[in-house]
Every structure is written in C-alpha cells, then in structure tokens.
Amino acid sequence: MAEASVKTLETRTDVSTPAAVDAATPPQARPDLLSRLRAPRRPRIWFEILLIAVSYWTYSLIRNAVPEQKAVALANADFLWRLEQALGIAVEKTVNHTVNSVTWLIVGMNYYYATLHFVVTLGVLAWLYRRHPGRYAPTRLVLFATTGVALVGYYFYPLAPPRLMETEHFIDTVLVHHTWGSMASGNLKNMSNQYAAMPSMHIGWSLWCGLTIFAVATVPWARVLGLLYPTATLVVIVATANHFWLDAVGGMICLAFGYAVSRAWYGAMPHRLPRHPLHTGPHPATAALLNRFRGQRT
Questions:
Q1: Could you tell me the pLDDT band of residue 62, with boundaries at 50, 70 and 90?
Q2: How far is CA 160 from CA 79, 179, 230, 240, in A?
Q3: Across the strands, what pairs with 279?
Q4: What is the pLDDT of residues 93-140, one digit of tens each?
Q5: How far is Cα 37 from Cα 141, in angstroms, rounded to an integer?
Q6: CA 178, CA 173: separation in Å to the nearest integer?
Q7: CA gap 38, 267 in Å, rounded
Q8: Where do the Inositolphosphotransferase Aur1/Ipt1 domain residues begin and end (predicted)?
Q9: Is the pTM of this model over 0.90?
C-alpha cells in the first residue's frame, strides 16, 4: 500500500514538473518577436499567389521605369565588349551567327527565352510549396532578394544587349525569325526597358532553380536536370544576342547576395532547414494584421 502511494506521488510530481518549469521560465528566455518572425512556417496558398503577383508587378514597374539612357547603355556595351575581347572570352557573336544558321534550333531558343524563364521558376516554387513547405519561405526570400538587388544594377548601370549594338552586326534572332522570344523586340519593344541587360535575371532565376533542385531533390536524374537548366539558359541568352557572358556573371553575383540575405535571416541555408516547418500557426505579422482588422470591425 505504501509502495503504491509512493508511485502515485512520483507520478504526480513528474506530471506537474513541466508546468512548474514553464511558469518559472524568465521572460527573457522565451522566444522574442524577432525569433518568431524568422521561424519558417507553413505557407498559405492565397498569400503566396498574391505576394508573387504583386512582387512581379512591382519588379516590372520599377524595371521599366528606369530611364532608358540609350547613349550611356550603348557606351557601356562597347566597354563590356572590349573588356571581354581583352579577356579572350568575346565569342558571343560567333555563337549568335552559328546557332542562327540552324533555323529550328534558334527558333526553339527564342521560345525557350520567352517562356521557360517564368514557367520553370513558378514550377519550382509550386514544388517547394507542396513537397518542402519548411524550406519554401527561405528559398523564396533568395529569389526575391536576388531580383531586388538586380533592380539596383538596372538603375546604376544601363546596358544595351548585343543585338542592339549598331556596329557589331549581332543578329536579333526574334526579328529575323518572326518569333515572340523577347519583350524587348518587335511590336512589344515599347513595353519593356531595352537597356536593362545587366545583370541577367534569366541566369539569376535559372541558377536559383537549378541549385534549389540539386540541393533538395533526391532523385539523381532530377538533380542532373537541375544543373543542366542554367547551363542551357546561358547558351540561349548568348545565342539569341540578349546578353553578354558578363551579364551572366552579374546574375550570379545577385544570386549570391540573395543567398546571403536568406542565410542571415533564417540562420541557415534553405536546404539545411527542416523539410516541414516546426511552426504551423499563423505568422506573427499576419496575426497582428488580422487582430487589428477584427478590432476595427468590432
């Protein structure tokens, strides 16, 4: 009987201990607002669709609002071309003319340039959202930070693409083959800033896709395709005379900045974070907005 009483008392003590510890936990040891803001949470589909739509609209608005400084952009293109010649990497014209001689290939590249830039990027975001929700927000932040810093490059370093250089005889493959491979060619050229070639977001975004797939995917063939995608994109942007090699380097630098921002905010590289978020409740910022909205209604 006495032994049973002892066991009962021990059990009660064990059950009550965590509550006592929680109550005794000093306020400074509890997670603060910043820590809760930085914790990855399960994304909300309506919020993500709205955020991506608004962000891309804002990006396009700012990019196209940058003054089109034609003289400066062409002068920068001449300088970059001479620099590549000095470095021995100025083979863009050779690639452009060689690929242009194969009609089916260059037409395919024109459509590649026009479509996959958006389709693959959105596809990777959707895949992360569905299969790796804990890594979605950190990886999305990489993409957003990369794109944001690219806008700074467009503003301070206007650059004409090779196809607009008047004396170098690059071929604008979209105009020659009557395809809609670029918003900056043909009937749509007035809708887009033609002198925002540095950095190349075709490379920034495709490399983001490739590295994300390579780091997160478990199927070997998917990882290989992830690495091939930015490689193929590099060939396409040069063959269509939309970018110099060094524009691609600019895109890579922007992507490195994006990863640095995400690493600083979340404390780890995106692929090293848990696949599923530890926190499933509403984001503190969302909760605050909802509480404020409910308070105004009442």
A1: confident
A2: 11, 21, 22, 14
A3: 41
A4: 999 999 999 999 999 999 999 999 999 999 999 999 999 998 999 999
A5: 13
A6: 8
A7: 9
A8: 80-260
A9: no
